[in-house]
């Protein structure tokens, strides 16, 4: 009978130890949501157009790419992985998408599909380097980041790409 009482006491003690950690986690989650609410209220007071439908749509459209990348990175981090090449591959996909529109005359949906394919191929290369070649994820994605960044820089010197990315600049006729 003493064993049952002791295990009950131990369970009570472990619950008391876990409770502060759970409360702390709950408070930090509510603090982040509360901070977001306070910021929204402050911005609504500062600018009457902040909560308009047009502005909210503008905010969502400007953060969509970052949100999609963050969602993918969440899964990578949850699995204890790392991907350093995400930003450079996204830039490469965008630049090559623009080049597909300018040089190949593709419509924007096809160029978006082409850019997505470029990003997928870079991800496939990372995955094969990590799983088949047994490279550390840090090394494989660092290399892909360098390759992608170099290709972006090489393609950004093209005056046609510059004319699309920055139409206010004066460039020679295409």
Structure explained in plain terms:
The chain has 174 residues and is an all-alpha fold. 81% of the residues lie in helices and 0% in strands. 14% of the residues are buried. The mean pLDDT is 85.
Calculate Rg over CA atoms: 25 Å
Overall strand count = 0
- Overall pLDDT metric: 85
Total of helices: 6
**Helical content, roughly?**
over 70%
Distance from N terminus to C terminus (CA atoms, Å) equals 90 Å
Largest sheet: none
Amount of beta strand: under 5%
- Regions with little confidence, pLDDT below 50 for 5+ residues: none
Shape: flat
Summing up helix and strand content along with how strands pair, one would put the structural category as mainly alpha
**Element order: H for helix, E for strand:** HHHHHH
Summarize the structure.
The chain is mainly alpha-helical and 174 residues long. Helix content is 81%, strand content 0%.
Could you give the topology of this structure?
Elements: H1 2-46, H2 53-78, H3 86-104, H4 108-131, H5 137-156, H6 159-165
């Amino acid at each position: 009978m003493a064993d049952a009482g002791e295990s009950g006491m131990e369970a009570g003690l472990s619950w008391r130890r876990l409770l502060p950690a759970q409360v702390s986690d709950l408070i930090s989650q509510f603090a982040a949501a509360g901070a977001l609410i306070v910021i929204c209220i402050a911005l609504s007071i500062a600018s009457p157009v902040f909560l308009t439908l047009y502005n909210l749509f503008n905010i969502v459209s400007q953060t969509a790419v970052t949100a999609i990348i963050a969602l993918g990175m969440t899964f990578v981090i949850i699995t204890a992985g790392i991907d350093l090449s995400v930003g450079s591959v996204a830039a490469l996909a965008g630049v090559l998408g623009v080049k597909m529109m300018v040089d190949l005359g593709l419509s924007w949906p096809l160029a978006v599909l082409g850019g997505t394919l470029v990003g997928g191929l870079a991800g496939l290369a990372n995955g094969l380097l990590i799983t088949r070649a047994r490279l550390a994820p840090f090394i494989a994605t660092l290399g892909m980041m360098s390759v992608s960044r170099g290709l972006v820089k090489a393609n950004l010197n093209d005056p046609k790409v510059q004319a699309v990315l920055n139409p206010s600049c004066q460039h020679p006729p295409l």
